[in-house]
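Summary for the steering committee. One of the milestones for this cycle was to obtain a three-dimensional model of the protein with protoporphyrin IX containing FE bound, which we needed before selecting residues for the alanine scan. The sequence and ligand used are listed below.
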Amino acid sequence: MTPEQIRLVKSSWASVILIAEEAGSMFYKRLFEIAPEVRPMFKHDMASQERKLTDMITYVVANLDKLKEIAGDVKELGSKHKVYGATAEHYKIVGECLIWTLEKGMDDKWNKDLETAWLSGYTILADAMMEGNV
Ligand code: HEM
């Protein structure tokens, strides 16, 4: 990611985080609409899952310029997802739902540069989770 892309992701997340609860519930609603087959993988309380996801995104975004420093946490999260049964196809769908949620959350402030920046960040994170390295 370029420094400008990192800046774009940080500043847009700072505004989406203001509606974190709404964003979290919109994200999973969309995920379960697009991929109902993943619904049974989620066995615990969804309100707490929504918070875990938005907290994790906040943590990763805050460390975007020094991802090596959080490599251990990303690897651990990736290992947990192997156990949950998350596949490469699931990661692709989750990425699409994330972008969709961000677009809704940003409304008329959303643009192509933001989309490219987020896609780049998400791809780095998802690949690191799947492969166990940053
Ligand atoms: C970069 C992408 C992703 C991030 C940042 C993320 C983040 C998280 C976090 C923080 C947790 C909580 C872990 C814990 O309790 O210690 C979690 C749980 C979970 N995630 Fe993900 N996740 C991602 C992708 C996916 C994908 C692709 C799937 C596949 C459908 C998935 C399915 C699950 C499931 C099934 C759980 C456990 C839910 C439960 O216990 O009820 N996640 N995720």
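Key point for the committee: The pocket of protoporphyrin IX containing FE is lined by residues 38, 41-44, 49, 52-53, 56, 77, 80-81, 84, 86, 90-91, 94, 125-126, 129 (CB under 6 Å).
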